[in-house]
Each structure stands twice: as C-alpha cells, then as structure tokens.
C-alpha cells in the first residue's frame, strides 16, 4: 500500500472523532488512516462492543448522535425497553440500530474473522473512504485502580460515571498484543505526510494505542511530523474525565502537561488560544488556534491548521 501523502491519526471516541471527521473532509478521500483505541472494548450481553471504533464509524458516515455524544442518531430503544421489563442489565444503553453493529460484529468474530477485517468491511459498506483500524486485533482491556477498587473500564466510565478517584491505569493484554502491520509500515515510510494525535484523553484513549508493542518506538522513529491537539481548553476538559484524571495522577491540570506527556515523540503542539500562557514555556513548536469544535466548519478549520503546521516542518 502506498502511503504517499497519507495522514495517520490516533483517536479515541468523541473528542478524537471530531477532528478525525475534520481531517476526513479536508484531505483527499482516501488519504486518512485512523488508528482507534480498543482498550474500552468489552463483552456485554454476549456482544462484542467497541465504543471508539463505532464512534468513528458513525461519525465519518454521518450517523452519529450528536446530542448524546455516542451511538447513532434517529435511534429507537425498543430493545432496551424490552430488556428492562425482563429485568436485564440496562446501565449500558444500546439503541436498536447500534445493536445491529454489535450483533453482526460478534457473529463474525465468532466465525474467526479479525476485528480489523470486520471494521474495514463495515466502513466500506457505510461509504467511508478512510481506513478505520483497531490498534490491535488482540484483546487489550483498560482497567483502573481506584479508591473503589479495581474496575473494568466501562464500570468506571459508564456505570460509575467516572466518579472514582483513579490511582493507576493498566492495559491488560497489551504486552502480548500485536500492532497493525500497516500502521507500523506507514510510520516507517518517508512518504507519510503527518501523524495526528487527536484531542482525546491521553490516559485512556491514546495511551492504550501507544502501549501496543512497537507503536511508541515507531512514533519516535517516524520521519513525518507528529502533531498533537490539546484536549484541554482553558485549563479544563471539554467533556469527560481528562482534567480530573490529570489531577488524580499527579499532573498539573493544564494544556502544557499533555504536551509534556507526549514529549518523547511529539514535534508540534496545537493548543487553544485560551492556553497561550500555559504553553509559553514549552520547548517545541506551538501553534495557537481555536480548538473547540462545535460546528462542522470548526472541525475542518482545525484540521487545516493541523495539516498546515505539519507541512511547515516537513
Ligand atoms: P472518549 O473516548 O469518548 O472519551 O473520547 P476521546 O478520548 O477521544 O475524547 C475526550 C477528550 O476530548 C476530552 O479530554 C475532551 O476535553 C476532548 N474534547 C472534546 N471535544 C473537544 C473539542 O471540541 N476540542 C478539543 N480540543 N478537545 C475536545
């Protein structure tokens, strides 16, 4: 596969998918490869659920539920309502349309197909020209040591609404996980245009991708510029537990701390204009930009700023 002019993005769910969509709409149709976190994946009601992959799938095919921030828009809930009446588990909401994704994925995994092949087929069927790749086809599961004991990721994130205090994060299975060969090859290819670390949670969305053996080393050695967009705006997270976790893990809660967290492979940092003071002391190229993505235009504007910053140092 030729990677000439291609852009590789590392993404979690909601925050990452916003910029991934901007990049997708800005770049030539097949120029984007997205590596998604699968540390949030879990088995629930007998189904294989991949929240970040599906957020990317729905976002890039214009099916995402923007009000909820997860799942599909125009969703119906007959399954959940019926399950509730039977006394089933309903803390993790699965809409009727969304359910089809999980049922079909589970069936194909049980038949022996790789997750990457299934997701590649799904994205083609939904008309997406970008590649959407799980970070590994091997199982990696994020677990958190908290003040309420050791928690599986979705117990922490959804059932307990990120309330527990996080002390340590572990990625079970990561040591034995193999990265996608095409991702490692793209990172080693001098024709790669840029690597974009999307504004995702560094600890539970980007770290799981980085700990897959070979990925971090490939990023460090990569000749293409590695650009990260801050998930912190004005010293706060837009949504989710990023800022809360930074405090709990003993980091300063500001945009600079995210850049320092990525320092071993980062070439350029895109921070919000509101964080000018916070990032002033960093010794790497900084681009200040409006990084809050509300409208489709915001996403595309930020994508253009990211690509221009990368092209300037290439
Ligand atoms: P999750 O897997 O669904 O939690 O999503 P991600 O990890 O991809 O994204 C969560 C992060 O995205 C949080 O730290 C948010 O602060 C950040 N985020 C969400 N929306 C925006 C935005 O519009 N701009 C920026 N810069 N960050 C955002």
Provide an overview of this structure.
The chain contains 13 helices and 14 strands. The chain has 314 residues and is of the alpha/beta class. The chain has a domain of 218 residues: Rossmann fold (3-Layer(aba) Sandwich), CATH 3.40.50.10680. The strands form four sheets. It has a seven-stranded parallel beta sheet, sandwiched between helices. Strands 7-6-8 form a three-stranded antiparallel beta sheet. The protein is globular.
- Kindly report how far apart the N and C termini lie: 21 Å
Following the backbone from N to C, one meets helices and strands in this order, namely: EHEEEHHHHEEEHEHEHHEEEHHEHEH
> What's the rounded overall pLDDT mean?
97
The H-level CATH homologous superfamily of the domain at 7-42 and 52-62 and 116-144 and 172-313, spelled out, is: CofD-like domains
Bound molecules: guanosine-5'-diphosphate
Tell the overall outline: globular
Spatial strand order of the main sheet: 5-2-1-9-10-13-14
| CATH top-level class of the domain at 7-42 and 52-62 and 116-144 and 172-313 | Alpha Beta
Beta-strand share of residues: 15-25%
**What is CATH's topology name of the domain at 7-42 and 52-62 and 116-144 and 172-313?**
Rossmann fold
- Structural class assignment: alpha/beta
How many E strands? 14
**For the CA atoms, what is the radius of gyration?**
19 Å
């Amino acid at each position: 596969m030729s990677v000439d002019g291609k852009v590789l993005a590392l993404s979690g769910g909601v925050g990452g998918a916003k910029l991934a969509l901007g990049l997708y709409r800005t770049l030539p149709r097949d120029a984007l490869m997205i590596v998604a976190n699968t540390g949030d994946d879990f088995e629930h009601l007998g189904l294989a659920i991949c929240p970040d992959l599906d957020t990317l799938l729905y976002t890039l095919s214009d099916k995402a539920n923007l009000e909820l921030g997860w799942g599909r828009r125009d969703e119906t809930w007959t399954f959940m309502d019926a399950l509730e009446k039977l006394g089933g588990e309903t803390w993790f909401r699965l809409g009727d349309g969304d359910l089809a994704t999980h049922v079909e994925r589970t069936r194909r995994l049980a038949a022996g197909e790789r997750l990457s092949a299934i997701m590649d087929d799904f994205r083609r069927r939904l008309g997406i020209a970008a590649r959407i790749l799980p970070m590994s086809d091997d199982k990696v599961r994020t677990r958190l040591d908290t003040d309420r004991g050791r928690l599986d990721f979705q117990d922490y994130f959804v059932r307990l609404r990120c309330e527990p205090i996080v002390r340590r994060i572990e990625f079970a299975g990561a040591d034995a996980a193999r990265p996608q060969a095409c991702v490692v090859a793209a990172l080693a290819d001098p024709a790669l245009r840029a690597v974009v670390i999307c504004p995702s949670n560094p600890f539970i969305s980007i770290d799981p991708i980085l700990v897959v053996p070979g990925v971090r080393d490939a990023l460090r050695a990569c000749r293409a510029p590695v650009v990260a967009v801050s998930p912190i705006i004005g010293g706060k997270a837009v949504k989710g537990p990023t800022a809360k976790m930074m405090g709990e893990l003993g980091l300063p809660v500001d945009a600079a701390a995210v850049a320092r967290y990525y320092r071993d492979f980062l070439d350029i940092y895109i921070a919000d204009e509101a964080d000018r003071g916070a990032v002033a002391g960093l010794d790497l190229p900084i681009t200040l930009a409006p990084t809050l993505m509300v409208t489709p235009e915001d996403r595309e504007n930020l994508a253009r700023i990211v690509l221009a910053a990368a092209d300037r140092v290439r």
